[in-house]
Amino acid sequence: MATTETVVATKPLYIGRARAHNVGDVVPPENVERNGWEKDVAKASTAAGRKALGLTSDATASQAEAAAQASSSTRS
Hints:
The chain is α+β, with helices and mostly antiparallel strands. The chain has three helices and five strands. It has one domain. Helix content is 37%, strand content 20%. The protein is elongated, with a radius of gyration of 11 Å.
């Protein structure tokens, strides 16, 4: 998944038995393909990404990106 857009987990993501990301967590794009998570993440600007971030369906793409970035900074 070669992208510069923010991607978020749409379901809990695991590496082995260890949870790596919760729903709505920002996922580094380089980890998506490496761990086989292509179907378990979405771009923050999509409907699935907005849902994972807890936003309403009428949130704009820029609001979703801002929410993802805010989420990322509070979890680090």
